[in-house]
Amino acid sequence: MGTYIRPNSLRGALDALDTGRLTILAGGTDFYPARVGRTIEEDVLDISAIPELQGIEETNNHFRIGAGVTWSEIIHATLPASFHGLQLTGREVGGRQIQNAGTICGNICNASPAADGVPALLTLDAEIEITSADADRRLPLADFIIGNRSVALSPNELVTGLRMPKPASRSSSTFIKLGARRYLVISIAMVAVVLEATDNGMVACARIAVGACSEVARRLPHLEAALAGLPISAELAKSALPEHLESLEPIDDVRGSAAYRRDAALTCVRRALAELGTNLDSGAGSPRAKSQTRVERSQGIESDADTFSIVVNGKPAKISSPRITRLADVLRDELLLTGTKIGCNAGDCGACTVLLDGQQMCACLVPVGQVNGRQVTTVEGLSTDGCLTRLQSAFNSEGATQCGICTPGMLMAATELLRNKNGELATEDEVSDALGGVLCRCTGYRNIVSAVLTASNSSISIESTRPESGTAVGARLDRIDAPAKLEGTALYGADVGPADSLWLRVVRSPHAHANFTLGDFEDVLDRHSGLARVLTWADVPGNNGFGIYPHIKDQAVLANGRVRYRGDAVVALVGSRSAVESVRDDELPITWEPLDVVASLDEAMKSGAPRIHDDCNDNILTRGHLQKGDATAGLETAYVQAESRWDTTFVEHAYIEPEAGFAQRIGDRIEIHVSTQSPYMDRDEVAQVMGFEPHRIRIVPTACGGGFGGKLDVSVQPILALAAWHLERPVRCVYTRPESMAASTKRHPSRITARAGADRDGKLTAFQFAGDFDTGAYASWGPTVADRVPVHASGPYAVKTVKAQTRAIHTNRPPSGAFRGFGVPQAALAHEGLMDDLADKLGVDRLEFRLRNAIRAGDETPTSQKLTHSAGLAQCLEALQVQWREWRDESEAFNRANVVTRRGVGIGCMWYGIGNTSMSNPSTMEVGIDPEGRLTLYNGAQEIGQGTTTIMAQICADALGVSTDLFRHVMGDTDLTLDAGKSSASRQALVSGNAARLAGEDLRMQILRLSNAGASSRITIEGGRLLVTDGDATRHVELAELPLVDGGDVLRGRGTFDPPSTPLDENGQGEPYATYGFAAQIAEVEVDTELGTVHPLRIAAAHDVGKAINPTQVEGQIHGGIAQGLGLALMEEYIPGRTENLHDYLIPTIGDVPDIECFIIEDEEPLGPYGAKGIGEPALIPTAPAILSAIHHATGVKIRRLPATPDRVRAAILEQSEQAQKEG
Asked: Can you list the domains of the chain with their CATH numbers?
């Protein structure tokens, strides 16, 4: 690790620069993201404590902003109206944490084409103050930035500030930033404009700059000249012409095409001119921001003392870590405050948010050297004496916590807001702004917003629900696992591991397809003294392959001579953390021979295409098929037909907790603590890799920070087991965010063609479907997707004839696995798109058309399975009719008054088979009572945020006849619980819920037999005594007098349930699922037709869940699914090698998810526990179709390639307009 210097004077900094080349650090917001997962070896000059770099000054002829001034200080400063655009810029920089830490000059020196501050500063004619030990100089900003990531600064020079000339007395400014989501936006295009006016209302001077559309942000001098002397009004916008932007050189990238950028930049320029023209014409000008007292930073020292002190949660703590160490690492590793979570180490997710002197900061971006003598507050410091704060209690009661990995960050951000409000009510906008820098993948944010608003309103009482015995099912019971997550004591995969653990890092392939050879690693081991071993494929004692299916173990733990996708594991480095992070991949003796890459479905299916797997005849992994009747004939007899094609891309799970865990060898066994969705599957998979009997592997699940299917496949489990076994030491592994995204499975990209027909009465006659699914380099869950999709392809409708065919196809791309729906979300895009088209052709209301065709009890599915009960789609649609009519009327009224901005309301429906497709998927649960009267629920249904801890207790408690408060919980440990199956396919409520019910009933019957009591007796536990009240008689059972039966219990009930299903025949006929979930959602969106941006305004969701075991958790699942469906529809697109972080790969932020109204339909399922089915997958599936339907209603365009990014929507609108012109 290099030297860290933090001088407290400018002279000290310049002297340090003179001694050698130093990397300058100020806010850390660009420094640390560039160093994720590696040791910081360069020498660092931290300039954050230099007084001469602070403050905003006004002189007779200019303003000066010090190089250390943060964006928050800019935002809250009292500045002239011409600086309003700069202040608006500050509000668009990252989230509040980045604004509090990031400096305006750091933003400039980073010199990114998308650097937010540059356009506004160009319009202020900013000069850069530059100082060295020898001289001072000033340079116009336009001359300072000389290229992408390149500035005119010598190694011995330091930027000390910015200087802007004083503006004219009558001036105004603005800033517009275009992105694909509300917060944490890297811009597609941005525009800053300053207008100065003459006394008679003419343009005296215009300065206009455009960013993110060239290598360097640029002024538009020709447009500026054209505006001079024109009357100030909104008509100024018409003066901006395409030729004025010809100097721009936009590029195609993940955020937008070059053509779109140029088009969007012109639109933004025109809007900025119209805004300023209107303001100046009215005399309003730009608003002035209120001044805010600046938070003073402690003065740094140059001392290299070994220890220093910080104050954490009100207590002094001595720090021995190097000062360049991230504050997050110090809190977690040195002070053992693991409530501060790490999701990215780049400031992209906000999970590590803490308060530093009262301001929210990303602890992963703060060098601990900057914290010397300052106050740090973490989530562990919120509650006192074991009592939750009002804010934490509100989170608990509102259901604002699910997986819990983002909860500490949300709480700290909200705490800053509430403290600043000082008892005043917070608004929803204020909550969104304050929490905009924290990402959540589970909750959909709405309950988080509600919780903060509730906490801010002291007139609202916050109470916990405590149902009485026998009434838990259906109650809004607070989550049992919430307090630990709210207090920061819940332990996730990266939070566990003995102090003497070694660290493991996997070296992965940089090539999508290549052969390779390994050399001798002795030189590497000799150069890195802390490196203990380099593991290769030859170290695998059992089968060097894993996979979901017993007959397909096609993915190597460590590759043997060939890799098939970028991210394949090649070798593993084991040693001290600093050692494994300091080894560069290019110093390893790996010789690569790149091979031809199969990069798409089309390439995979070409004649003579390279085979991804040599033991296969082609690249088709598997096929799915369903045929009922003659669909071709059904289409021929249809009165109307509709057909189209849909294309979807990879979608990343983006759980905020990367894969993590540790393993240790205990005798002849291996124990693995890991974040997982499937403990028993992990156990069996690791056992076959190690060549062990399964009982020699113990999986101890940690808290799981989100899964959504992505933690069904093994990740760190087998390689940790291998390392712990060989080295006989505990070994930890935590994926970096880029590694997690490169290595993990994704939602299958798909190419779907579908065709449907209906008769004159609007009843479906036939449906044809063909879908190709890119399963990537390895099988993973490809066969499941290929088998499930044909069953669901025609949607939740009564269709007379159906033919559906699917193929899972190998490419040299990331493995596609399970992701909330197993291919059904992709299929829903097709069947819902065709339902809209058929309804429109028939002139029938879209909701009414679906209601006519909704499958109901008594109807047959495409597999010829007769639905006898719990088929609630019609009820879902009926529940939405009022909103549907009102929203459509309101949107059409809006559109009559607006041309550019259009609103539309769309609808999407779904059905989903609960559990495995035509396969046994049993669950077994146990509940026991020990001699002291303590009840324990042995729950193998792994908690991943969906609420199994709580609902299993509710079900079991009612079956047993006791209160949920009495239970202790043992979760998922393969030594202590029985196999409850994987947490996927929305199966746990139905399958494990029934097992929990049966276990409770079994224990109850044992107690009643012991006490010779009747079935309706009441059971009470008082210490080590059971009281059984049967009518007027009460019988006592002394538990200590009973013999032990298992694990310290004296009584233990067991329940096993396996939902009935049958195999499908060669035509896909049979009964693949015991029951189905149904849903309908409607969405209202607002589309900016000039920019192509889509803003969801509100969503209503009706879901048939059978029975809501816990309505709060059902609503939470619906909210979270809708947020993921919104992301699928509008922004999420994983591109290997390009979107492997959480700022290039976009998921919805708190500002992107609209109000959601939930309608819980309870069409009870007789097979389910108390009538329950499932909700996890159904929550997501209809959202994207509803949003696409709404875009169509608003604009007339049909988006068939997802996501519907602004450039794609705009292109579709332009194409439609051009087609109309040709036809007109």
From this structure: 4-282 (3.30.465.10), 333-349+378-491 (1.10.150.120), 496-597+654-741 (3.30.365.10), 821-913+1075-1217 (3.30.365.10), 923-1057 (3.30.365.10)
